[in-house]
Each structure stands twice: as structure tokens, then as C-alpha cells.
Queue: 2 jobs
Job 1
Amino acid sequence: MKIESVHLYHMELPMQEPFETSFGVETDKDVVLVEVRTQEGAVGFGECVASTAPLYSEETTGTAWHMIREFFAPRLFGLKFEQVQDLSQVRSALAPFRGNRMAKAAVEMAVWDAFANLTQKSLPTLLGGGKQEIPVGISVGIQPDTPALLRKVEGYLAQGFQRIKVKVKPGRDLEPLRELRKAFGDIPLMADANSAYRLADIEHLRAFDEFGLMMIEQPLGHDDIVDHGELQRQLSTPICLDESIHTAADAQKAIRLGACRIINLKLGRVGGFAEALEIHQIALDHHLPLWCGGMLETGIGRLHNIAVTSLPGFVLPGDTAPSFRYFAEDVIDPPVDFVRPGFLDVPFMAGTASRVRRDRLQKWVQSSEEVRP
Ligand code: OSB
Ligand code: MG
């Protein structure tokens, strides 16, 4: 398989409702999609999870577009893929360029997706996954007040979600958690702080222990591992790292320093499937539970999340909820939906192209560009 062209699409996709975290609000889905076409006629898609502003990470839709067009796409044209092992060449070819992992991931996953399309093998199988279905949780954004949060959570529990994650920040943390426990008892519950606290808040963070949470996600700095190690030694609640883990080496360091007991793996954050597989192996070797995080993806990213979640190390419910939670109309058809309440099936996926609705892509696309050798 050889790559013939790379197409970039910038889309604005209407979201069902705004999503608020400790760093900001997302209203419409501003997304860059990558399509690769091969000389053999196969097609693959990859979704870039960078957002409009550099708030979750330093990348944006604009920087990703620039990096892919100027540096990453041109590196693909010289590569040749015959077996699944050859796909790791994408990661090696892009490794000399620093950072920009969400942009790299979009390109890398599009190539894997095209390879699945060409060989008519299922992406979960190519990755080594064997699960037939996966349990999913939901990430609930910061709500206007606690009664609104309780109403939301009640609805999600009724829909069958297997775990509730609530976003917290200073002033919007202990009271909502206490009320959630009071209203819903012993549900699988966790909190995501998106780096809203400092190690100096340790006394305050210790108060989270009384709620028996499954974990607290990324309480401290987005680039920190050391302070999380210090905090974990003083908390009984397991720490889960999200923002701090970009590479397999980061995962090794976090484990060595005892900075987390769980990792939220996001394909975009770590640069794609090849790096994710390495982190997955490390997690298995250290008996460290993984789960697959989300970045409010369209169906394309959502299917790739499902593919990686089919691997055995993903032992906790992830954030990959059905499409309807985010979009009235997804770019894929059929959309991602429950097979039974709280569970998604791992479908046969010879890439995502056969499910991509080009007419919808056309409807929401703001600009596009083709890169050729
Ligand atoms: O920290 O996990 C996060 C959304 C955007 C940016 C960061 C995060 C999130 C979520 C939502 O928690 C996950 C999802 O539903 O896709
Ligand atoms: Mg998070």
C-alpha cells in the first residue's frame, strides 16, 4: 500500500449542548479530518482532536492543519505498507518532528484505517483487540448548579451508562460530589479536574477521599508527573493521569514515580495507534488499568476509540458515549449507539470509510485542501 494523496477538511459540526470543563466551554465541534487515498484505491480517515483554542493542550485546529500540510503528509508518500507491522513506520517517519501529537495521530490513524480498508481486515483485529462489546461511561460537563447536575446524572443512569464522571474545579467539587452520593448512593463515580488544583491544595484534595471515588483524573498540572506522585502517596483515591501522558516513556515515568494508579489513554494525545499499543503493553506488564478517554469526537474518532478499547488492557469503562449524546447528526451512518443500555458493540471495521456520509461532510465543511507528493 502506498499513499497517493492526503485530504484535509475543516468542519463545524453542531453539538447537542455546550460542554464545560475547568478550562472552558465548547459549543460547536470545530474539527479537522484527514482522509488518505492509496494508489490501490483504498481510503482511510483520521480525526484530529485538537480544539479551537490551546486550552486542553497546546495544539489547535489551525496548528494541526499547518503541521499536517507542511510536514506530516509529505512524509507519508515515500512509505510502503505490506503487513500490519509496517504501519509503525508512520510513527517513526514523524518522530523527528517534536510534539504536535494530535496532528500526527490524525495522519497515522488515517493510514491504519486505509490499511484496514485495503485488506478488508477489521481495525480492532489489526490492533490485537478481541472484545465483542465494551461498557461505556459518560463525562458530564460542569453544570449551572448542583440540582441541574443531579437531573443530568439521573437521566444518564436511566440510559444505562456504566460509570459517571463529573468535571470538578475549586468551588464546584465537594458539594456536588456529596449530593451525588446522597442522591444515587454507591454508583461508579469519578471526578476529572483537568489540572484545576496545585500540590498546595493537598488538604482540600484529601477531602475527596470520603466519597470513595473510582479515581480522580488529572488533579494537578497538565505537564506534571512528580507532584502527582507526592499527592498519590497522601490520597487513598486512585489518581488517573490524562493530560500528563504523551508517550510510552511518560507512562513508564508515571508508574516509576507512583504518580497514578490508572491511565486515561487518548489516541490523539499520544500520537496514534502505535504509541497507544506501546502504552497498552506497559499497562499490562504493570497491571495498571487503562480506559479510553474522549475528546468529544465525531463518529470517525469514536470508531477508532472503540477499536482500541477492544484490547484487553482497557478494563474500565471509557468516555466513548454513543453519537446521540453529542450530535443530532453524526458524520458516520449508522451512528455509534448502544447494543444494550451502557454497552457498545465492537463492529467489524474495515476502516471507517464505508460509514462516512460524504453528503454530511460536504454540508459542514468550511474548507478543504489536498496534499500530493
Ligand atoms: O479531560 O477528558 C477530558 C473533553 C474535552 C477535553 C478534555 C476532556 C473531555 C471529556 C469529554 O472529559 C470526553 C468525551 O465525552 O468525549
Ligand atoms: Mg480528562
Note: The first strand starts at residue 3 and ends at 13.
Job 2
Amino acid sequence: MSAGALKPGATIGILGGGQLGRMLALAAARLGFHCHVYSPERDSCAFDVVRASTCAAYDDRAALAAFAEAVDVVTYEFENVPAQCAAFLAARRPVLPDPEVLETTQDRLSEKNFISKLKIATAPYASVHSATQLADAIEKIGLPAVLKTRRLGYDGKGQAKIARGADPNAAWRTLRHAPCILEGFVNFEREVSVVAARSRDGKVVCFDVTENEHRDHILKFSKVPAAVTPTIAWEARDIAQQIAKAFDYVGVLAVEMFVVRKGKRHTLLVNEIAPRVHNSGHWTIDGASVSQFEQHIRAVAGWPLGKPVRHGRVQMTNLIGAEIDGYAKWLNVPGVAVHLYGKKDARPGRKTGHVTRIFGA
Ligand code: AMP
């Protein structure tokens, strides 16, 4: 245990009330902690499973002060927590991971610069603030390329591909001329991620490299183990470890990467860092002896990390939008665990549940 480690019965404050907050709270409950979820959305599905909740805006200082007073540590389940909110809470309670991590990862340009400084490879990228810069970026990087807003993009939102011969300004217009980065389009062989946990005393434990398949830019399947060579698996975990260390990170983070084939060799390019538990780690709830959610709770509580053992080959399938209505068909499938998030509104593109199938060793 680290100095100041929380005892069972302590209260963990979670900013954000989506399914990640809900699964964090369920893992915390198993370890004897209470959770208090803070979310501006009345229908937050994490509210259903916690002892206390606050429904208020992220700039409501009175509500934030009362929340800080009621919890022993604050963590978050999404990366777009406003910087002022994180700073306000950090003046009153430990906030883990450190809010500085949010500042870096909320902005694709500062995130890519941070990764590059560590000498970790990414797709070629350039900052785009003006039409001239866009032309210069294309000159440097070439086409096809992907224009991404620096802030607030997720699940393919805030992105526009620019094909060879297409009008780049039209692509930028669709993003309302927001500050962007232009990234070279990567012809990847597969996408993988590493979910890593780092404890308060600096120990890092990575889950097995996970292979991810997207549909319409939204994660659809995660499979473990990923079909990569042992060398690539080692490199992927090493990259996640380096990033966690460089941030002096406490908690769980995910690093999304592209596997690129160059002749007979494979290399990795980092696409994105998520400073939180991640959809590609959901398989760990049923597929491993310790889940990503439990690792995160252990880390922020100052507990030692678990040493997860995987239960076999695992596939996680996201239920998206109205797919949740077909949940009954999964209930009798051998080796399947069903997770329904209890969301009121199954809008298209919204993650409404997932199922995990264990295939045995
Ligand atoms: P992101 O929001 O950056 O994680 O992107 C969402 C998805 O879009 C990724 O998981 C990839 O499937 C695809 N994508 C993003 N950036 C690139 C790129 N530079 N080249 C090719 N595909 C990309």
C-alpha cells in the first residue's frame, strides 16, 4: 500500500456519468469503496449504481465544492473535463490522474507533440490554423490525409478524410474551420491498443495487446490476443509503459496504435492516448482475473495493482444504438457475459452495451 492509501469504506469521486463511470463504480463496490458520481446529465447511467450523485454543471462551483468535501479522491471517466473544473477540485482533493495529463490529451496537437518528444512514432502530422497552413501541410504530408479537429473529436466526429484530388478547403469547411491537425492517412494492417495501469508508486502493469475493429469509426470488436508478432506485442506494451511513466500517471490509460507492414517488417504508430479506462479494455471484466476498472480503482486508492491472468481467447462485441434491443439472443450463448448500460436513449451510434465471449484457453 502507498502512504495515504484509502481504506475500504472511503469514497471515490468520479467525474462523468457514462458507462465507464458505471463500470468503475461497480469495480469499486467490489473492493468495499463507495462512489459519488458528478455529471451534468440527468439520465447518467452511472447514477444507478452509486451511493451518492450530483447532477450539476462542471462550472458550478458550489456543487463542485460540496462534491470535493464529500469524497476522498477524485478521478474521471472522460478526458474532456474542463481544465478549470479539474483545477478547482485539485485545490481541495487529490485528483488522479493529474489534471496536467488532461491538458495534453485534450488537444491532438499537444498530444502528438508529447508522443513525438518521447521518440515514439506517429503518423506524420502538421498544425492547421489557416488555409495557407492547410496548403503547406498537404505539401509536406501529401494526400490522402485526415483532417482532425484539435479538440473534442471522438468516434470519428471532428474528422474529415481528404482524398487525392479532393478540395481540402471543403473538408476543412465541414469542420467549421476549427483549429485542426492534418495527419497522413495510414494504410494500416490492423489496429491495436494497450490498456496499462500505473500505481502511485510507479509500477506499471499492462493487459495483453488487444486488436480492435471499427465500423463507421466506432469500435465494434476487440479481440485478445491480437494477431501480432511477439516483438510487436512487446513494443506496444513498452510504448504504453513509456507514456505512462512520462506522464507520471496514476490510474489506467489506453494507447491506440496502428500496425503497419513494411515489406516483411511491422512497425507501430501511436494514434491516440485515452487518459482513462477504455472501451477496448472491457473484455477484462470477464476475460481476466482483474479488470481495467479494478486496476484503476486500485491505483487511485493507492493500492497495489493486480496481476491479471487472462481466462482464454476473448472477443468483446459492442452493442451500438438499437442493437441493445436484441440483447436476449446473447443470454444463452455459451461463454458469453452480457453487459447492458441501462441508457434511456438508444440513439444511433451510441454505445448501449457490450457482450464478452470467452473461448477458453
Ligand atoms: P481517432 O478518433 O483518431 O481515434 O480515429 C478513429 C478511427 O479513424 C481510428 O481508429 C482509425 O480507424 C481511423 N483513423 C484515424 N486516424 C487515421 C489515420 N491517420 N489514417 C488512417 N485511419 C485513421
Note: The radius of gyration is 20 Å.
